[in-house]
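RECORD TYPE: inverse folding
INPUT: structure tokens
STRUCTURE:
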């Protein structure tokens, strides 16, 4: 019989909560996906390319016309140049890109530092590569970097540091000072970095997103991951990209070509067309989602939850310690079936969950849905 390589892994919390929400007809603010559609021009471009017969394999690293647009976007939004030929790889979702990057650089016995709470795919990717995840919790209500613990976690076997900003599930963003600190740390210890930046355009209240690609020593050592699912509201198209220096990209592609080989062709052509015509579209996202965050938070004003409005992502954490002492996983199930609102418990993103009562709610939803959800939450 098969002996599991991931004995502690079950079905992801996102699948479980969305299934439970559907079973109970609950408002689903659990799994992160928009309940509104992508821009019409993008959907039209997709349909056109499918009907025009662009349905066979793309080049392994991605359609060049798209990669050129992505390089232009990096220049436009981050002031950084990159070579679309040797530094950009289009992947079937950031999850695949992260997996391939981990596989490309982690060897059996290597240690990989993860900052908890962290996205659920990181640890299994590290384990499948034979590595060992070393978890360093983010600190305090603000989920700040704990520099002392981070420094203490680095050993002679540390190969890789995985970071995520804007951060899922906390909604926190790393500051320029944080990035400078990390830059010095990885340089001092010769570490590689996976920088998960899938929510790069979702930063609020005038904050800036600081990409690893903007800091020279991080730029040299980082695989930076992005996702069209977030930027264009097409999570079901499962396409993203990785930007990394040529030597890292070469190794990433060696893995990528045998995990999936390529990303979906008409998606790549559609996004290339859309970006050529609407290069400013990503810049509209911050205001769009900030308004939704504000609407959701304002509607919760009379509730018994406490919260700090998210700095980024499309997630809002709510603290329920005034309402219940129940553990978050049980409470999410209970509220989904009994109250009709589904959220994500954040303890599942920790190796050792701290004693905090926090749930994650996705506000990438139509206003009426957010208002209905808030109404229910105010009655709890
Ligand atoms: N990283 C983070 C932090 C995420 O929230 C997600 C969720 N979508 C991903 C990676 C994966 O993105 P994709 O759907 O493109 O695989
Ligand atoms: N990234 C999404 C979230 O955090 C879900 C992705 C998934 O379902 N795997 O909710």
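DESIGNED SEQUENCE:
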């Amino acid at each position: 019989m098969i002996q599991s390589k991931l004995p502690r892994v079950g079905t992801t919390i996102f699948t479980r909560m969305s299934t439970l929400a559907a079973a109970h007809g609950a408002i689903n603010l659990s799994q992160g996906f928009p309940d509104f559609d992508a821009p019409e021009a993008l959907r039209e471009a997709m349909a056109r390319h499918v009907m025009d017969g662009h349905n066979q394999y793309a080049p392994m690293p991605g359609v060049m016309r798209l990669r050129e647009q992505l390089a232009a976007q990096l220049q436009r939004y981050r002031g950084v140049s990159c070579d679309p030929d040797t530094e950009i790889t289009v992947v079937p979702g950031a999850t695949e890109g992260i997996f391939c990057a981990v596989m490309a650089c982690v060897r059996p016995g290597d240690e990989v530092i993860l900052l908890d709470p962290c996205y659920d795919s990181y640890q299994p990717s590290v384990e499948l590569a034979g590595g060992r995840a070393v978890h360093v919790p983010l600190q305090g209500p603000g989920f700040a970097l704990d520099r002392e613990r981070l420094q203490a976690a680095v050993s002679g076997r540390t190969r890789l540091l995985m970071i995520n900003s804007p951060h899922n599930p906390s909604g926190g963003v790393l500051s320029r000072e944080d990035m400078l600190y990390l830059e010095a740390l990885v340089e001092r210890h010769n570490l590689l970095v996976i920088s998960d930046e899938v929510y790069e355009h979702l930063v609020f209240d005038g904050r800036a997103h600081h990409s690893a690609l903007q800091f020279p020593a991080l730029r040299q050592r980082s695989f930076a991951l992005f996702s069209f699912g977030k930027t264009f509201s097409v999570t079901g198209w499962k396409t993203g990209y990785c930007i990394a220096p040529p030597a890292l990209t070469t190794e990433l592609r060696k893995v990528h070509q045998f995990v999936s080989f390529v990303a979906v062709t008409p998606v790549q052509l559609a996004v290339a067309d859309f970006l050529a015509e609407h290069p400013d579209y990503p810049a509209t996202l911050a205001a769009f989602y900030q308004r939704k965050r504000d609407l959701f938070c304002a509607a919760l004003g009379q509730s018994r939850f406490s919260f700090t409005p998210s700095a980024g992502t499309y997630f809002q954490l709510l603290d329920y310690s005034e309402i219940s002492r129940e553990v978050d996983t049980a409470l999410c199930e209970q509220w989904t079936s009994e109250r009709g609102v589904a959220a994500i418990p954040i303890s599942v993103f920790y190796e050792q969950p701290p004693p905090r009562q926090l749930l994650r709610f996705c506000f990438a939803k139509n206003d009426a849905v957010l208002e209905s959800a808030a109404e229910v939450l105010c009655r709890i």
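NOTES: The radius of gyration is 20 Å.
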